[in-house]
Specification:
By secondary structure, the protein is α/β, with parallel strands linked by helices. Helices cover 40% and strands 17% of the residues. The chain is globular and about 70 Å long. The protein binds xanthosine-5'-monophosphate (XMP). It catalyses: XMP + L-glutamine + ATP + H2O = GMP + L-glutamate + AMP + diphosphate + 2 H(+).
Length: 326
């Protein structure tokens, strides 16, 4: 019968078979998928795994520090890379969503290649092995929506699937490729990962880069980071973190509307709240957040983030909308 214990044992065996006595780096995003993938691989190959977390400058407020704290507890070797300049330079002038995703996927891989050289480059050829392995937390829905499943077309290129370059120098290790998120969480609990890690709401690898509608710049990211921080803080205060699957906060960076604050006219940007409920992210419904929570978020964002003068709510299910706007 199919149980989580079986999944863990079976995947650990498969990883041992694939990697042998080789070495691997794991692309750690801070989310549950890559954490569970890394934990399985750590169980299989021990200290021949190094986890690499890339701060691409599109993470949320305080996120990198928190990931560092949480993951150092669980993983023996953690390498944190500051790649903000690299990613934002590569994204300069780009607004088209698929192009953004491809660029981000490409820069991720180049960053992991550089990390592999930094981490394993000083080893002897025998110790380093012939193959460079890259562990990713790719799930079944990522594969399907990136056009990898039979008879499907690309909806959006998930950064760890459709954004991979043709000349990839890695052999991929993807132990979660047949699983859905709820199954991954069960495996994470089976492995004894902390519940903050296992129950963390999903956050896309491309980060806030696909939540800025328009060109991604540092200035726009800082605006969105503030608004997103407030929205998440209020959701947590209301005790709704588990009920809501996730709540993307989106900045319509190329849109401005007129408002009034104090005695003066404002001409600022709208923020969109996109709270959803879901089982597996393949379909979703818009979350009926209490009006008081919405009011609190709206008041605080327009008071505390001077560039934002309007907060709107996305009431579209998936389909026809997707969860993320890009
Ligand atoms: P969509 O927008 O396709 O999102 O309805 C479904 C789920 O996937 C997340 N998502 C991503 N996760 N890399 C990821 O790791 C990506 O490129 C990516 N794009 C979307 C999204 O947050 C939602 O949970």
């Amino acid at each position: 019968t199919w149980t989580m214990v079986n999944v863990v044992d079976e995947q650990v065996e498969r990883i041992k078979e694939q990697v042998g006595d080789g070495r691997a780096i794991c692309a750690l995003s801070g989310g549950v998928d890559s954490a569970v993938a890394a934990a399985l691989v750590q169980r299989a190959i021990g200290d021949r795994l190094t986890c690499v977390y890339v701060d691409h400058g599109m993470m949320r407020k305080g996120e990198t520090a928190q990931v560092r704290r949480d993951f150092e507890e669980v993983f023996d070797a953690l390498d944190v890379v500051d790649a903000e300049d690299q990613f934002l330079t590569a994204l300069a002038g780009v607004s088209e969503p698929e192009q953004k995703r491809k660029i981000i996927g490409h820069e991720f891989i180049r960053t992991f290649e550089a990390a592999e050289v930094r981490v394993f480059g000083s080893l002897s050829p025998e110790e380093r092995g012939d193959t460079a392995y890259l562990v990713q937390g790719t799930l079944y829905p990522d594969v399907v929506e990136s056009g990898g499943g039979a008879g499907t077309s690309t909806i959006k290129s998930h950064h760890n699937v459709g954004g991979l370059p043709d000349d990839l120098n890695f052999e991929l290790v993807e132990p979660l490729r047949t699983l859905f998120k709820d199954e991954v969480r069960a495996v994470g609990e089976q492995l004894g990962l902390p519940s903050t890690m296992v129950w963390r709401q999903p956050f896309p690898g491309p980060g806030l880069g696909i939540r800025i509608i328009g060109e991604v710049t540092k200035e726009r990211l800082d605006i969105l980071r503030e608004a997103d921080f407030i929205a998440r803080e209020e959701l947590t205060r209301a005790g709704l973190d588990r009920e809501v699957w996730q709540m993307p906060v989106v900045l319509l960076a190329d849109v401005r509307s007129v408002g009034v604050q104090g005695d003066g006219r404002t001409y600022g940007h709208p923020i969109v709240l996109r709270p959803v409920t879901s089982e597996d992210a393949m379909t979703a419904d818009w979350a009926r957040l209490p009006f008081e929570v919405l009011e609190k978020i709206s008041t605080r964002i327009t008071n505390e983030v001077s560039e934002v003068n309007r907060v709107t709510l996305d009431v579209t299910s998936k389909p026809p909308g997707t969860i993320e706007w890009e």
